[in-house]
Every structure is written in structure tokens, then in C-alpha cells.
Description:
The protein is mainly alpha-helical. It has helices spanning 18-26, 36-49, 53-65, 70-86, 88-95, 98-104, 118-132, 134-137, 145-157, 166-170, 181-202, 205-219, 229-253, 265-286, 291-316, 319-324, 379-384. It is built from 17 helices and no strands. Helix 11 crosses helix 13. The longest helix has 26 residues, at 291-316.
Amino acid sequence: MAARDRFGGFPSEPATTPLQRHIQNACDPQNFEPNLALDLEIADLINAKKGNAPREAAVAIVNYINHRNPNVSLLALSLLDICVKNCGYPFHLQISTKDFLNELVRRFPERPPIRATRVQNKILELIEEWRQTICKTSKYKEDLGFIRDMHRLLSYKGYVFPEVKREDAAVLNPSDNLRSAEEMEEEERAAQSAKLQELIRRGGPHDLQEANKLMKVMAGYDTRHKTDYRAKAAEEVGKIQQKAKILEDMLQRHQSGDEIKEGDVFEELANALASAQPKIQKMCEEESDDTEAVAKLFEINDSIHRTIERYKLIRKGDLEGASKIPKGTLGTSGAGVTKGPDNELSLIDFGGADDSAPPTAASTSSTAASQPASKGNALEDDLLGLSMGDDNYGVGGGISLGT
């Protein structure tokens, strides 16, 4: 505790900001178990403050992970897990830096112990979970290369990663909840801002070049990679239409009167449709100047409502009542709407944009960031471009990613 921490400051120093004080309280050694409410409050605070908050939190949390008291370390790891699952790309960008990852495994010996500690097992579990989820499915996975590198380095050293529970990892996979064009644009701006701040913080020549390119995109000077959010929103609505069609087809085949059980696929689809309705209504407000788009959205919203009503009646066993609701996934008013087979609306086209537009600069980082230069002929250097023990960032641990 007396030694200076490599990731910024002394763990024993008093917290100076509200965020640091919250993290200090969450990792208090007198806590015998994680305080989920406080952990979620910290995640909300990071999301609300934005700016430097993700890095500030990552720095503070990893300090506590390296605490000599294993209870404090486990409390910090639980908090880290909550932040990763609730704070999105700006926080993911911080846990994927060399500095953070080297700190995370600072107490890992060069050779794996016969029996790993609870803290080591939890760290291995988290790295494995990140590799299987955000490193594969995130829109910004190219920015998370050092997580993959650390996983490969630990595997090479002989560390065995525990199996990740499917339900634990599911939270980190992309959500299929409907998002409006405005929400997608806001998310993209937040990601670009976080990426820009991190590039400027690093300050290397290549980082500053990337920052300059990203600023041009954010300022609107570079439109080559501009995303058409209305087209993307149309694509999202198309996915909801498909879910409605699947549920409707299942309901029409469900004529035997068998009970629909709670938690089955029927309920899952119905809940997804119900949660989409408020978003579709919001999209109608955003598209108020486009009467054709609004007409299509209202038509889809009405059809979803009918499908949900049919589901509720069939679940109650009222097959007669359900049969009175017009069949078919979508409605029949047809105002300004082109229909295909089975009365299904075609994918909405808000202004005829190409929804295959290339991703924005925030989603395409240089691969150089995740491929450090090889430094020697050692197997680990040849394998990963990583180096062992020559990291000049602070004291240094037994295992670290190269500079």
C-alpha cells in the first residue's frame, strides 16, 4: 500500500472527487459482499459525467483490485464487472488499454501457481468473458485488440481460463432493442468523443493523426464515412417486423389450446414487441415531416399491437377471441404502403438512403493500435508482438504487454 501505484496515485490516498468517493465506499474492506445498488449508481455516474469519468473510474478500480486485502480486490472486481456491462464503449476503451491490462494482471506470477487464488480466477474469468463478447460482437471491436492480446499472452504462459456462463456473457452482447435514428446518432457521438479524448491523451504521432481525422468527421468536414441513421433506424424496424411475423406465425399454429408457459419463446417475443412500441411512437415524432414514413410506422405499430393482443388472448385460452383479431402480421389500411406476400410491409425506406453505408471513423480504428511492433526473436514476441517484463510504466509486473 505504501508503494506508488503504477496506474496513477496511491491507493491509500483519500478520494478527492464524488466518483472516487463512491468507488472507495464500494470497495470498503468492511463490506462483506458487493453493494449492487452502489455499484450501479457508480455506473450511472460514469455515464452521466462522461468526459474523463471512464478513465478516472478505471484508474481507481484497478488500484483496489491490486489491494493486499483479497476481499477489497473481489469487491473491486465485482464493481469492474458492473461498469463493463453498463457503461458501454467509453469504459470498454479504458479497460482495453495496455496500462489498465498490465495493472489488472500485475500480481500474476510469470508461471501459473498450482492453484490460482479467487482474485486471479475472477480476473481470468473477466478477460475470457470480454474476449468472447465485446471483442467479437462490439461495433468497435477493432479498438479492443489489447484484450485479445492479453488473453493470448496469458494462455501462452499456461494460465487456464474458466468457462464463462452464457447468461453472464449475454449482457455484453449487442442488444436487439429498437433504437431511433436520434438515439443511434447520440450513441455514435458519445463513442467518437471518447475515442478522440483517448487519442489525444496518448499523444503519440499516430494517435494525433487519427485524432485529426476523427475531428474532421465529427465536425462534418469528412462525410465519406457518414452513417445514415434514418436508414439504420429503418433496418432496426425491419428486425422488429420479422419478430412480429415469427410470433404471429407461431400463434396461428398454436390452435391446440396448449398452455403458453411463462418465460417461453412466446413471452420473449411478445415482450420484445411491447418494448418496441414506445420507440416506434417516438420515431413517428422524429419523422413528423415525412408523412409516408409516419404512415408506415403507424401501420407497423398497429400490427404489433394486434399481434400482442392475440398473444394475450391465446395465453388466457380464449382462442375464439383471438381468432376475431385480423390475421397476418401487418395491417390492411395500406395508406402509402407497399405490401408483399402475407400482407407484410416492405422494409421502411426513410428517404431512399443506402443502409449499407460504411461505418463511421469511431468504429474503424487503426490496426496498428492492436498490433505492437515485434521486438525480438523470443517466441512470445514473434507470436504476439508483446514483450515480457520490459514495460517502463511504473514498477512492472511479471506479465505485461509490450510498449
